[in-house]
Design a protein that fits this description.
Number of helices: 3
Helix content: over 70%
């Protein structure tokens, strides 16, 4: 257990940040799953930029590795193009 006030504050901040990050990661994963489940190319093309933006935002905050983000974007773009 933390004994210093600064360590206690850091624990509170980390818990808040972890919850915040978990929300955004889950939302992005759900969006990716939704995109992969689409069969209409027009709707998928409209939704793709939103998903790419979400993935980029997570990569910028180091919640996704840069390479993981690049792989996801490439695969999703390829998927939409093949519809």
């Amino acid at each position: 257990m933390a004994h210093h006030a600064s360590a206690k504050k850091r624990i509170r901040q980390d818990a808040k940040k972890r919850l915040h990050n978990r929300y955004y990661k889950k939302t992005t994963r759900t969006a990716i799953k939704t995109l992969r489940g689409m069969t209409d190319k027009a709707k998928a093309e409209e939704f793709l930029p939103k998903v790419i933006s979400m993935v980029d935002r997570l990569a910028k905050r180091n919640l996704f590795h840069q390479n993981k983000a690049a792989n996801l974007k490439g695969k999703l773009t390829k998927f939409v193009a093949g519809l």
